[in-house]
Amino acid sequence: MTKKQLKPASVNLALSSIKFYFKEIVKRNIASGIKAPKIEKKLPTVLSMDEIKSLLGATNNARQRLLIELLYSSGLRVSEAVKLEVNDLDLAENMGTVRAGKGKKDRNIILSKSFVKALKVYLEAREIESKFIFNSRNGHLTERMAQKIVNESADRAGIKKRVHCHVLRSSFATHLLDAGTDIRVIQVLLGHSDISTTQRYTTVSRKQLRKVKSPLDVLKTSDKELKVLSNWLK
Predict the structure, then answer these.
(1) Are 102 and 77 in contact (CB under 8 A)?
(2) Which structural domains are found in the chain, ordered by start?
(3) pLDDT tens string 149-165
(4) What is the overall mean pLDDT for the chain?
């Protein structure tokens, strides 16, 4: 693993395949004693509000902007966004439905009012009729193309963070949390079956962390103590 610089997730996938082969095919449970490496727990990347504005401003056309607006304002997975159909949206209610999302489950989503206004104009203006919002010659926009749109927009915006479609989903969740939205509501909107998955975003919510008062501040450092510190630094 070290020589090939493989990630723990890749090793675990290979190990699971080997265990399945020996247990189910060979009928020998010889790999049961092999320990799997621990998965790295990295904090999700989140964009600030200003970075979101910059990203939207760096798009080249209406479709690119609408795609990024949808990913950020509704928290969709890229696979869900590119397959979203016009008939899945209730524009009058600013709501929509993701059909057979992750885990083959349907779920309700919210739609931004500004996104809905722009979408109506876009749908009326486009020349090719399609059941998909983001149509292409072969049906709908591909996930790879959606990722490219987000990547290139981030580059033009000068954002230094590594930006991809899932970062917009993470930003959606974190910004809702910052605004005081109940985490169980965010769980439903994201389509998480386990709330522990949603709770990852509590670790990156700086607004929530700033509310915590450091125990040192409780001591209330006096002006006299600050003067002593200043003298030490001279």
Answers:
(1) yes
(2) 1-40 (no CATH), 49-210 (1.10.443.10)
(3) 999 999 999 999 999 99
(4) 85
Q: Which three-class secondary structure string do you get for 27-55?
A: CCCCCCCCCCCCCCCCCCCCCCHHHHHHH
- Are 47 and 168 in contact, with CB atoms under 8 Å apart? yes
Q: Which of 23, 164, 166, 200 is catalytic?
A: 166
Rounded CA-CA distance 97/108 in Å is 5
Residue of 201, 207, 227, 234 marked active site: 201
Instruction: For residue 35, indicate whether it is catalytic.
Output: no
175 in active site: no
In the prediction, which pLDDT does 169 show?
96
Query: What's residue 215's pLDDT?
Result: 72
- Residue of 65, 77, 107, 140 marked active site: 77
Cα separation, 154 vs 9, in Å, equals 27
Tell me if residue 166 is catalytic: yes
Which structure tokens are listed for 117?
């206004």
Q: What is the pLDDT of residues 132-145, one digit of tens each?
A: 999 988 899 999 99
Q: What is the mean pLDDT of residues 29-57?
A: 79
Choose, from 65, 83, 107, 169, the residue flagged as catalytic: 169
Phi, psi of 59, deg, nearest 5: -75, 155
The residue from 19, 99, 102, 164 that is catalytic is 102
CA–CA dist 147, 149 (Å, integer): 5
Q: State residue 143 phi and psi, 5-degree precision.
A: -60, -40
Burial of 34 (0-12, 13-18, 19+ CB in 10 A): exposed
Is 164 a known active-site residue?
Answer: no
Evaluate if residue 5 carries a pLDDT over 60: no
